[in-house]
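@channel sequence for tomorrow's demo:
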Amino acid sequence: MSLRWTVALASAVAVVAGGVAIGAGQKTLTSGQPAKQRFASLAQAKTPEGTEPLFRGDMIPDLGLGCSNPTGTSGGPNDWATRVTATLPPAPAWGVISTTYNIFSFNAGPTWNLQAWVSATPTAPPSTVIGTCPLGAGSGTTGNHTIAIAPGCLTIPAASGPTFFFGLSQGADLNGVRIGMDSNGTITPNTVFIKAPGCGLAAFGTVESIGFPGNWVHRIIVDNSLPVELMDISVS
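structure tokens (generated this afternoon):
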């Protein structure tokens, strides 16, 4: 059994002179046999008491989406964002303790960040950056990733919630990367966004507006406590 790759281009997005485009690499089977799943399912999340998983869709990557050339050496930076609403009450904020995501194709350069943005209205695109948490070396490579987030690295204040955006950002990295997308789960308009200046998306736009309705295969787990600095009694 062999797999061949096709690249679909969104007609609404400009293909720039360097040959980059918003591309969705999707596996198709050359034989009549069912295709094996390329990545393991990320649907099951272990969530300790007092925490809440935030994500959309079924967390199973069906295709990859991002601005890139055919080899991933250009096309970035890309930003991918999902609007969510926390039901866990802030006390006094939401702290991200873990993140899970799929990179479907290609590898990021030195910058790979977990990020949160303000959701000004229920349909508005991501606006002000709430916070950025660098994920470190090796976190921007092809495949599934689950990463523990250090306390305080990404905190969403109560004033920025309970509805906000979370996602991934390449910063200034010029590599082209395609994030896993679930195209079969429940899709809610105006909740899943991408920004890709190299492909003509200088500001955030919805994925459905460029012809790829779906959900990013990305989840965060939040708690509602802030890290406490340990104190002791000393005598001088």
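heads up for whoever presents: The first strand starts at residue 3 and ends at 9.
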